[in-house]
Amino acid sequence: MSGKTVIIGIDGVPYDLIEGLANTGEMPNFAELLEEGNFSKMHAAIPEVSNVNWSSIVTGKNPGQHGVFGFTELIQGTYTVSFPDRRALKAEPFWKDDKRYMILNVPAMYPADEIDGVFVSGFVSPDFEKAIYPDSALKYLNDIDYKVDVDSEKAHKSYRLFLDNLFDTLEKRKKAAEHFWEKKWDVFMLVFTGSDRLEHFLIDAYYDEEHEYHERFIEYFREVDEIIGDIVEKMDEEDRLVMMSDHGMEQIKKNVNVNAVLEEHGLLKLGDEHDKRYKNIEEGTKAFALDPGRIYLNRKDRYPRGEVEDGEKTLEEMIDIFEDLTHDGEKVIKKIHRGEKVYHGDQTNKSPDLILTPNEGYNLKGSVKYDSVFAENIFSGKHTEDDAFLYCNDMPLPEDPTVEDVRSLIERDEDE
Ligand SMILES: [Zn+2]
Question: Domains in the chain, please, with CATH?
Answer without folding.
Answer: 5-251+381-410 (3.40.720.10), 254-375 (no CATH)
